[in-house]
Amino acid sequence: MTQTDKLEAVLGGVPDPLTDKPLMQSGRVSGLTLRDGKAGLVLMVDGLSGPVAESLKAKVTRALEAAEGVTDVRIIMTAERGPPSEKPAPSRADPHPTEAITLPNIKHIVAVASGKGGVGKSTVAANLAVALARQGLRVGLLDADIYGPSVPMLLGNSERAKLASGRIQPTEAHGIKAVSMGTMADPGRAVIWRGPMASSAMMQMLGQTDWGELDVLVLDLPPGTGDIQLTLAQKVPLSGAVIVSTPQDLALIDAKKAIAMFEKVNVPVLGMVENMSLYLCPKCGHEAHIFGHGGAADTARELEIAYLGGIPLDMTLREAGDAGVPSAARDDAISGIFATIAGALKDRLKGI
Ligand code: ADP
């Protein structure tokens, strides 16, 4: 009997909360490993309410801790669908408080946020990370955009996350280390996370990934200003946030809400990036301001925060993202723009 067979046998004594069958037959457990006394696994908590999922996690932890040769247990919770009849959390109160986290090997954690979806936040986060790495920094990217994890596609790397000694191993592509909520579940399947579970999964991914030494860790946050963003802003030692917006008034109203949220929890806003700022016709060179122009720069001025730069609406940028080679990894006009924005951001981060 191998060590992991022994652990599987131990988990046989834990019943599945929905079916009462032994947990190992429920398909909830994957990636079971044991190395140097550290047991690790991924626990699917589909269909379980937050408290039931937490209680299952506690039972699995206790069972493994009692097994011979196990000194430490690391469990990553994931879900592909939410609890069937559960209402969303009624308030911002987190019923499963997550401990604040310290990451001494990471000099700066920078959240890339937006007030609303579809403004190009993930595109900016991934390209900024690559552009910072091209300036000689050691960079990581955590795709915490659980509603639409797109980093695996943007970096052309959709391998499932691997565990070693119970810790997540980031994938490496285009000079950066990346981990995505998108690689914790089957690609192409929608993942629905409830607020507290999502915050807790994100904190685990942050703290249980082998990032090594990093100068900057870029966090691609989900859009908006809900529980997840608030938990992160309060419990992760952020150096600051970068806000992405289109120049449009409506997007800017939401961007202002995001800025207000970070300011309320004393996270400095490092600057604003305007995406889809203008459209240059590739045939005639005509400049069109499809979503307006200069709105983010004006808002930044009004709110007395830095304006880091604007990115045009550009077909090559979308195509590069779809092809898995971010524009910032190329040598063209768009990569130059990302280099300038990354340079402006770097200047605002102390000690690198
Ligand atoms: P968000 O993270 O805000 O939801 P994404 O980064 O996923 O947005 O971008 C949404 C879509 O818009 C993607 O298909 C992306 O390739 C495209 N996109 C983002 N920025 C630009 C841009 N400046 N020019 C062209 N397409 C863009």
The helix count comes to 10
The gross shape turns out to be elongated
**Could you name the ranges where pLDDT drops below 50 across 5 or more consecutive residues?**
84-97
By secondary-structure content and strand pairing, the structural class works out as alpha/beta
Order of helices and strands: HEEHEEHEHEEEEHEHEHEEHEHH
Strand percentage lies at 15-25%
What's the overall average pLDDT, rounded?
A: 85
Give a quick account of the main beta sheet: strands, pairing sense, barrel closure.
Answer: 9 strands, mixed
Bound molecules: adenosine-5'-diphosphate
**Beta strand count:** 14
Helical percent range?
25-40%
Question: Which value, in Å, is the CA radius of gyration?
Answer: 21 Å
Distance between the termini: 50 Å
Oligomer: single chain
Notes on the structure:
The chain is of the alpha/beta class. Helix content is 32%, strand content 23%. It is built from ten helices and 14 strands. Strand 8 and strand 9 (176-180) form a beta hairpin. Helix 3 (121-134) crosses helix 10 and helix 5 runs parallel beside helix 6 (227-235). The longest helix is centred in the N-terminal third of the chain and has 16 residues, at 50-65. The protein is elongated. The N and C termini lie far apart (50 Å). Mean pLDDT is 85; it is low at 84-97. Adenosine-5'-diphosphate binds at residues 114, 117-123, 148, 150, 223, 275-276, 311, 313-314, 317-318, 321. Adenosine-5'-diphosphate is lined by residues 114, 117-123, 148, 150, 223, 275-276, 311, 313-314, 317-318, 321.
